[in-house]
Amino acid sequence: MNNITKMWAASLLVVFGVLTGCGEETTEETKDVEAEETSATTKETSKETSETQEEDVNNEEKDTEKKEPPKTLKQRLTDSINKSVGKSTNFGTDRIKEIEINDHAGTEKEDDVIVLARLRADNNFSSNSIRTGILYDTNEVLQTIFENEEVSEVVVFWNFPLTDEYGNESDGVVAKIGMTKEIADKINWKNFNIDNYESVAEQFNLHPDMRN
Asked: What was the pLDDT predicted at 18?
């Protein structure tokens, strides 16, 4: 083999080596790009899955909120009475003793009810002060109960600790005030004189101790 032939052979080997090396580098670069694309796709899929799961949880919470049943009339009355005259008396007992709701058979209106609210009165310096507090609280109780359209009559029983002749103490009714919605609608509560309950209410009874 002459020198020229040797030189051409050497040149071809060099070119072949360069091309081979470039091919290997290109293959490695392609693998790296593919790996990056796969990683990015995986991250995006993971993000979408996480967002979907969060949306599902939020939707479940909203569905739970929507499925909560509406409050009954008794529950609404309990909330409104506690809000208007306090959940507890000033000596620590529950304000509401019992709330009774009955169909009102004495009217022509369908689905109307009469509410019997048995409540506990606050203590005060004297029987007269207790009576005054009861009548002012009655204003608040009647107004808040009559906000419910289905209520056509209310009777409020105010209870207070009484002591009998033997010295035994127990809750007893010291005031009973009953009123229809028809009468309540006529009253201007801002200017109403509590001493007029006896003349305007359909039912008005005070314990003898409350008249002193």
From this structure: 41
